[in-house]
Amino acid sequence: MEKVKFELEVPIHASPNMLYQYISTPSNLQEWFADKVNSRGKIYSFVWEGEEELAELITKKAGERIRWKWLESEDDESYFEIRIDLDALTKDVTLVVTDYAEDADEVEESKQLWENQIEELRHTIGA
């Protein structure tokens, strides 16, 4: 079964440079995204409630975006990306998440999980 791609855009009151630190470094990801985050080269280990998931870093553009691919889903085109968009006119900052759900029924649940994670990020950085 083919996974379903979705995007979630969330306005966030923080500087792009600070946000990038929180989406790109294991120690800062650990503060809001997962219980524990480690990296060895391009392989990142994310731990939630004692369960480890491994992902390969596939794109990293300083100050803008980071993209990983779960190692367990290497047979498909899925990935997850966190991107920082800065509106040139208003200077509003938006965090854009691109991810894949197992099927159409799981899209809303997946979006809710991301919204909860981003709320934790807001709390962590005081945004």
UniProtKB/TrEMBL annotation:
Keyword annotations: Coiled coil
Superkingdom assignment: Bacteria
Pfam families (UniProt xref): START_2 (PF19569)
Keyword flag tRNA processing: no
Coiled-coil segments: 97-124
SUPFAM superfamilies associated with the record: Bet v1-like
Segments forming domain START-like: 2-127
Protein's UniProt name: START-like domain-containing protein
Species: Polaribacter irgensii 23-P
Lineage: Bacteria, Pseudomonadati, Bacteroidota, Flavobacteriia, Flavobacteriales
